[in-house]
Amino acid sequence: MMQASVTAEQEAPSVRQQAVLDAVLGLMVEDGEQVTMDAVARRASCSKETLYKWFGDRDGLLTATVRWQASRVHAGHDTAQVLDGATLRERLQDFAVTWLEVITGPTSVALNRIAIAHAGSRKSNLGGIVLANGRFAIGERVKPVLEAGRAAGLLAFADSEAAFRTFFGLVGRDIQIRLLLGETLDLDGAGIRRDAGRAVEQFLVLYGQAKPDPKHQR
Amino acid sequence: MMQASVTAEQEAPSVRQQAVLDAVLGLMVEDGEQVTMDAVARRASCSKETLYKWFGDRDGLLTATVRWQASRVHAGHDTAQVLDGATLRERLQDFAVTWLEVITGPTSVALNRIAIAHAGSRKSNLGGIVLANGRFAIGERVKPVLEAGRAAGLLAFADSEAAFRTFFGLVGRDIQIRLLLGETLDLDGAGIRRDAGRAVEQFLVLYGQAKPDPKHQR
DNA sequence: CGAATGGCGTACCGTACCGTACGGTACGCG
DNA sequence: CGCGTACCGTACGGTACGGTACGCCATTCG
Q: Which of A112, A117, A170 is nearest residue B166 as measured by Cβ atoms?
């Protein structure tokens, strides 16, 4: 009867619907305030009626867009069981680089802006979705690594959540808030790797059980 | 001739105008999306015509509100010349506590939401004002303390900006982004002091020249 | 081949909100 | 007293946008 309405939860968007959601993302990146239903319909070459049939209302469209983008970020390698110092450092470095690449990307900035603007009023918490798939998702992936590091005697901490939050702060610092507030930081891949490396070394200084390796600069 | 129009820069708002701006802040805290010119006029018991005479347009009103709030945050004690370890720790602790109190306050959250939402489009960078009076203002106040600490042989770093950004990250961690995205973290004064103390100790571990004092817990 | 379905384009409605205009009032001043 | 000024309250125009309705075409299937 009815085509997959994405608002009904659990429904994965069809290919055509994904194209619509990508159009929304494109508009968000260009200018968050011009994400209007007319503009989306024009950009996606579809009719507004179809948008409403598929997504219910504007909030449904935005929610589906956030979910759609979130579903693309989840690519990440799985847990390795045994950890030596070099592997631990490498895993943390990977997480830091990935995280910095995500939050400095224009899509993430635009999406977070929308979600934050929306968080001011009650209806439909985009903020919760962004948090669940951003900050908390990365936390749930990092904490097992930290705990494996502790089990291997490489790290010392009582609360893995607290340790992760410190790691999070060392990696992100003021970058995200500055980007969200409109500053144009240009971080290339090399800069991101340097930042990530510094954060990892600092984290190991704070939480490392064995002394960090002699590569420790500064 | 004309009453002080706050849009003309350098003009400080009159008492009546301050009352209007406080009304705007109140509306922002209640619900960022209901800051409409009608609502402001009603809340402030003034006419819309007066709002436009004083502030030019809606952006001017928002800008004046951001400036007005920023002007209230600047209360901070001045530099002490000689620094021993206890004084340095105390000054950093003060900064950390103040900063956490600011960013967890409902006014700051609401204001940052407005500025971030606005940063998506070009016109009138509220984001720049918030950054200048928030992140950068605190940085300009902390960095002299760090440099005094280095001059006293208590700290070791090459770049005071980089050192401050690490301090910033250790203090703020994920708190601001979680609040902006709508999570309700309840941090009381004791929790803030605990967080600030942990951040200061971690910073001193990373950048302290002399070993931190035996009070160092965890 | 004809009917049905899905979807595009567009016209349209209601509403919310920005910005302006206008009438009315209080107050200071010559 | 009379005038100007500043301001409040409110009504109004213009516009942008969310949401709906309708005509039309293409594809598919009986």
A: A170
